[in-house]
Amino acid sequence: MTYPREFTEFATDDVQTWLSEIADRSTSVESYRRIMTYLGCELGKRLPFATASHEKVLIVATSEDADYLVTGYINALKEYGIDYKLAIFWNHHYSLPNGSSVAPITQRFIQNGFDGCSRVVILKSIVSGSCVIRTNLIALLDSLNIDSISDIIIAAPVMYKESEENLKRNFPEAISKKFKFQTFAIDSTREKNGIVLDGIGGEVYERLGLENQPALMQKGYMPELVAQYLR
Would the pTM count as exceeding 0.90? Predict the structure, then answer.
């Protein structure tokens, strides 16, 4: 069964094929990871500052997305000679009895010099609600000069139809007016547990071959992208 989906102007034939493949539950972990990397690269190529090599970009993401979506995005920035800093968060995302969600940060990796970036890009494999993005952006705002930030770009291969307005409502206008949204597909169906259909084929943790949310893994989880900077 397929669900209503609206493709954006950025969704090339290749991108539409990749989105169909990650929505397919039979797609292997290896293929899923590879496609997420491709999609990250395509997002990076299509952002509005792709030719502004003087800009320094702060890339904000969760640990599960670091090695694939974020790595692909970084590959695109490197092609344009754009400097960047990373802010990677481990979030424990869960629902409260009243139905709202929280995503406390259990661990973080933030590169020195991040506060000198003039643009912020928040990358996620899918944007369904506002909880994780809100938590991670708030964690950075005290250290950022919001007046010097030209754009806060929320980028994901797939977004739920109400996510843009939900995010804007969670921030004062001084911040939300800087939001720009970049996606390939907008889906309009969501289950009660928050899973978007067709979305990205279920929970990203399982599809990437992770046993759980990285924040909850007993042996811990260190993305290779982050490990490279810690060596």
Answer: yes
The answer as to CATH 1.10.3720.10 being correct for domain 5-228 is no
Residue 178: pLDDT over 70: yes
What is the residue extent of each domain of the chain?
A: 5-228
**Cβ atoms 219, 69 nearer than 8 A:** no
Q: Which one-letter amino acid corresponds to residue 34?
A: R
Which of 108, 107, 103 lies closest to 194 in space, CA to CA? Answer: 103
Hey, what long-range contacts does 148-151 have (CB within 8 A, 24 or more apart)?
148/118, 149/117, 149/118, 149/119, 149/120, 149/178, 150/118, 150/119, 150/178, 151/48, 151/49, 151/119, 151/120, 151/178, 151/180
Q: Which residues partner with 140 through β-bridges?
A: none
